[in-house]
């Protein structure tokens, strides 16, 4: 057994080493890995203090890393707000977070936590291989540079490129961070989890690229997330091998969409290779015009910030359901802290987890008609939640210029609901149905918390909508939360199958294998497509691979070395809408007077501002100059998109002479400096 554990650990270490070396240089790795681990340790020791040394390593190493990341990010944001800008804050933040270790020991015995057993080490180590297998090759190709330019697969131009823009802006040091897409505005986005990378980049920009720092963080957060899911399944008493199998099943085989697409091409005589030109985990949106549900494999690709927020929400929910004492204000206060962290890191998901915790606790209170418990627990959990809610507004997360959340039936959720649901959740639904049948026969009350989460997800799915996200934002969050809960159900089913009579066991495992293999194509295709930079074909409104040409990269380099960090640039945001909307903030690392960011809500002010600012590319030269000055623009960039949409724009700008001279020009791009009149 010891030999097996050592061999498994060696394979895992080698796989992660190869993955990390594929995304960063050794020097960057030393710096980036050290920073990530510093932020992990306080959480590990806090959980160990709560669990007690006798419980073993499982709970601290499963739940501690992401708790450390969350607490460290909160403290780091406080230091940032207080003016701390040096690299020293990377040491100070985890040290301050570690002050919670001693008080945490007073909470020992308040939760039912699993102890480490013999099979945990091999099961968890084997499960962790999912990260390099699923994300290793895609990460190795992010921002790949050749003689043709630099390449980013289109899947990464939403969350990942957006993250580049946020980190680049945070690294400039303004507090509150400036909105790089709207002059004079704060950054309305849950930016707290990105401060760590911003501090790293601010310090190491001269020798570590932003891509390197972002990808190293993603590898670690992905590994911590897989460990967390394993720990949560073990929390429900599932044996190690079944826990690992349940998590692996949900991550790699959650959807029938890939199989459906392959069947559709085969039945219509189309080439199977055409799946390269599909958003394979969004087939329900492309084919049925219904809700898009992303599997957990996509979180591993490009959503580390949501992972940390989800982790705190999940731990906060389970802190309510797995406490040892029915009436326990301290346990509820801790749950409130965890849910508050979730709200600060991934606000909408945190709200959903909080609602699920309220549903679960509310049901227990109603069953016992315990009014005193209701009041005590509501106050205990409500204090940190109220503080988090206030911080959300103080930190500028919410744009009060318009309504962000809409209540009422989301009609997209009803479009071909049964087919969309079956394709998006099919394999997990089948296994979950078997688990529900098992639950009904065994009367496992501890699974009621999963029912509370499922009920919350259903209500949000149909009746809550985040505006300006094509009505799919809530669907993405619902899918992730349900998939995380389903890991427990899958683990329970696999464990039960192993103990069933032989003939039934064989038949059941054959059925599980069929379901798994039928769901596997979605992830396999997704992994292939996400790393496929050779696909330069055009999708609806964008190309599958974003190409930053050598001229683009030369411009970015010139901008970063020859203009102030707070300089304001402008392109035509409308013609760059769906593909290079983050061209300047993400790659040139400069602000715009007005942009059209796809992740900001409400979107109306950006749309209206973009329509107004783009007129300077068409109007009379002096009018364009005056408009640019009033908007606070320092430089105007004219590239192929502007040139194609606005004929003769450069001739008009050239006629302004010393008012708007050429600051830089290469083969395809011109930059005009907007000067003050003398």
| Coarse morphology | globular
Low-confidence stretches: none
Mind describing the biggest β-sheet?
5 strands, mixed
Distance between the termini: 81 Å
Question: Average pLDDT, to the nearest integer?
Answer: 94
- SS elements, strand count: 12
Strand arrangement, major sheet? 9-8-10-12-11
Q: Helix- and strand-based class?
A: mainly alpha
Structure commentary:
There is one protein chain. This protein has 678 residues and is mainly alpha-helical. Helices cover 62% and strands 6% of the residues. It has 28 helices and twelve strands. The strands form four sheets. It has a five-stranded mixed beta sheet with strand order 9-8-10-12-11. A three-stranded antiparallel beta sheet has the order 1-2-7. A hairpin with a 2-residue loop joins strand 1 and strand 2. Helix 1 packs antiparallel against helix 10, helix 2 runs parallel beside helix 10 and helix 20 packs antiparallel against helix 21. The longest helix has 30 residues. It is globular, with a radius of gyration of 26 Å. The protein starts with a helix and ends in a 5-residue tail after the last strand.
Compact description:
The protein is mainly α.
Keywords for this structure?
three-stranded antiparallel sheet; 28 helices; 678 residues; 12 strands; mainly alpha
List the helices and strands and how they pair.
Blueprint: H1 2-23, H2 26-51, H3 58-81, H4 89-97, H5 101-104, H6 120-128, H7 130-140, E1 144-146, E2 149-153, H8 159-170, H9 195-204, H10 210-235, H11 240-252, H12 257-267, H13 283-288, H14 296-302, H15 304-321, H16 329-345, H17 347-368, H18 371-394, E3 405-407, H19 417-442, H20 448-463, E4 464-466, H21 473-498, H22 502-531, E5 538-539, E6 542-543, E7 545-548, H23 550-562, E8 568-570, H24 583-588, E9 591-592, H25 604-613, H26 621-630, E10 635-638, H27 640-645, H28 649-654, E11 662-665, E12 670-673
Parallel strand pairs: 8-9, 8-10
Antiparallel strand pairs: 1-2, 2-7, 3-4, 5-6, 10-12, 11-12
């Amino acid at each position: 057994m010891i030999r097996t554990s050592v061999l498994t650990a060696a394979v895992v270490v080698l796989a992660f080493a190869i993955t990390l070396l594929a995304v960063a240089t050794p020097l960057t790795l030393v710096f980036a890995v050290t920073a990530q681990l510093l932020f992990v340790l306080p959480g590990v020791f806090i959980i160990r203090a709560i669990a007690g040394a006798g419980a073993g390593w499982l709970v601290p190493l499963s739940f501690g890393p992401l708790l450390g990341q969350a607490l460290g990010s909160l403290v780091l944001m406080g230091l940032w707000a207080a003016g701390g800008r040096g690299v020293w804050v990377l040491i100070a933040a985890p040290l301050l977070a570690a002050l919670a270790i001693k008080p945490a020991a007073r909470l020992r015995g308040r939760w039912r936590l699993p102890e480490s057993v013999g099979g945990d080490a091999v099961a968890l180590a084997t499960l962790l291989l999912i990260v390099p297998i699923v994300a290793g090759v895609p990460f190795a190709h992010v921002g790949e540079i050749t003689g043709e330019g630099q390449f980013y697969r289109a899947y990464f131009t939403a969350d990942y490129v957006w993250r580049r823009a946020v980190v680049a802006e945070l690294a400039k040091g303004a507090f509150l961070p400036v909105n790089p897409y709207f002059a004079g505005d704060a950054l309305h986005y849950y930016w707290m989890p990105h401060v760590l990378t911003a501090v790293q980049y601010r310090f190491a920009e001269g020798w570590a690229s932003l891509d390197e720092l972002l990808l190293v963080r993603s590898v670690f957060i992905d590994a911590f997330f897989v460990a967390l899911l394993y720990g949560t399944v073990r929390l429900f008493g599932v044996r190690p091998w079944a826990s690992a199998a349940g998590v692996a099943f949900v991550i790699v085989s959650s959807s029938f969409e890939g199989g459906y697409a392959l069947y559709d091409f085969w039945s219509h005589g189309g080439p199977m290779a055409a799946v390269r030109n599909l958003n394979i985990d969004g087939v329900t949106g492309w084919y049925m015009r219904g809700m898009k549900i992303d599997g957990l494999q996509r979180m591993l690709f490009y959503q580390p910030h949501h992972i940390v927020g989800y982790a705190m929400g999940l731990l906060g929910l389970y802190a309510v359901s797995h406490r040892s004492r029915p009436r326990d204000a301290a346990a509820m206060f801790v749950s409130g802290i965890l849910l508050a962290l979730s709200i600060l890191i991934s606000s909408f998901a945190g709200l959903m987890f909080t609602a699920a915790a309220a549903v679960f606790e509310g049901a227990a209170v109603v069953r016992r008609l315990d009014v005193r418990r209701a009041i005590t627990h509501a106050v205990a959990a409500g204090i940190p939640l109220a503080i988090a809610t206030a911080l959300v507004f103080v930190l500028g997360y919410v744009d009060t210029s318009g309504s962000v959340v809409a209540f009422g039936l989301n009609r997209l959720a009803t479009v071909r609901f049964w087919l969309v649901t079956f394709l998006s959740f099919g394999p997990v639904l089948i296994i979950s149905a078997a688990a529900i049948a098992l639950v009904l026969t065994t009367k496992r009350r501890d699974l009621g918390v999963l029912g509370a989460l499922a009920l919350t997800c259903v209500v949000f799915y149909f009746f809550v909508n985040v505006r300006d996200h094509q009505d799919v934002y809530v669907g993405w969050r619902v899918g992730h939360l349900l998939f995380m809960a389903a890991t427990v159900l899958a683990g329970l089913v696999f464990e039960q199958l192993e103990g069933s009579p032989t003939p039934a066991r064989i038949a059941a495992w054959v059925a599980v294998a069929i379901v798994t293999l039928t769901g596997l194509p979605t992830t396999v295709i997704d992994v292939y497509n996400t790393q496929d930079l050779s696909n330069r074909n055009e999708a609806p409104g964008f190309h599958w691979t974003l190409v930053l040409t050598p001229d683009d990269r030369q411009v970015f380099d010139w901008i970063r070395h020859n203009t102030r960090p707070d300089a304001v640039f402008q392109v035509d945001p409308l013609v760059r809408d769906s593909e290079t909307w983050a061209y300047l903030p993400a790659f040139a690392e400069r602000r715009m007077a007005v942009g059209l960011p796809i992740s900001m809500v409400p979107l109306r002010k950006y749309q209206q501002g973009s329509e107004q600012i783009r007129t300077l590319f068409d109007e009379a030269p002096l009018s364009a100059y005056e408009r640019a000055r009033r908007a606070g623009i320092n430089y105007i960039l004219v590239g192929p998109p502007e040139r194609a949409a606005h004929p003769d724009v450069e001739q008009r700008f050239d006629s302004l002479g010393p008012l708007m001279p050429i600051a830089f020009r290469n083969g395809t791009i011109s930059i005009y400096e907007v000067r003050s009149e003398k």
